[in-house]
Amino acid sequence: MRWGMRDQMTTARLDDLRDLIASACRIIGLLEMSNPTQGHVSARVPGEDRCLIRARGPNETGLRYTTRDDVILVDFDGRR
Length: 80
Description:
This protein has one domain. It has one helix at 11-30, and strands at 42-44, 50-54, 71-75. By secondary structure, it is an alpha+beta fold.
């Protein structure tokens, strides 16, 4: 999936990108390419100073079990 820098990032596209990040995390976890509870995958939102990144929380299950809901949108200062 490719986006030009001028494409508008709609909620649907953000959800697609969240799904891709979650899938990448699961693959990294499945292939044991990282410590089970560490590591992340992120993607910059095209044309914006924000990114989607896998977050960790109190109910951490590890990369292998990452879902779309584990991927959050933050600015480059880490604010949601």
